[in-house]
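User: I'm writing a tutorial on reading structure tokens. Could you give me a worked example: one chain, its sequence, then its tokens, then a sentence or two explaining what the tokens reveal?
Assistant: Sure. Here is the example chain.
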Amino acid sequence: MSQTKLFKQRWLLAAFIAFVVILGSTISVGQPIATAKEPDLPKQYVGVWEGIGTQDNGVGWSILIALTPGPKDSVVGTIAYPSIPCNGKLLFEKKERNEIKLSEDLTHAGVCAAGGTISLSPTADNKLTYKWFHPDGRADGEGSLNRISSPEAIAQ
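And here are its predicted structure tokens:
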């Protein structure tokens, strides 16, 4: 990998993490107040994650997700697909058994399909399984995400 490409990737990652930290510090403004029955995003999902997703037609793309703590129906993070490029906010919909559901609010859609839902579930090797669904519920992509930053690093 060339030095220029490596520098660009590291710069994009640093900018993305900085954006998440800023988003995390302002996330409560205008957001619904959680009640005792509304669970917060589980701590095991908090952090910065990266990986590769693959659509059902075999097309692949890069994924970068940063998640911060937050209640149901609030913005809990950001998502970027650097290879496409698309990015936006993630809203915490619900936790079901061993997975969480997030809805995408793409602020820069590029060639991405808008209005998708993401399912994330932990694996035995401390990764996350990523699944993407169209607004009609039809699955159209999956992948695996590796943690690249811990929750403690985001809080600093």
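What the tokens reveal: The chain has one domain: 3-155. The longest strand covers residues 86-96.
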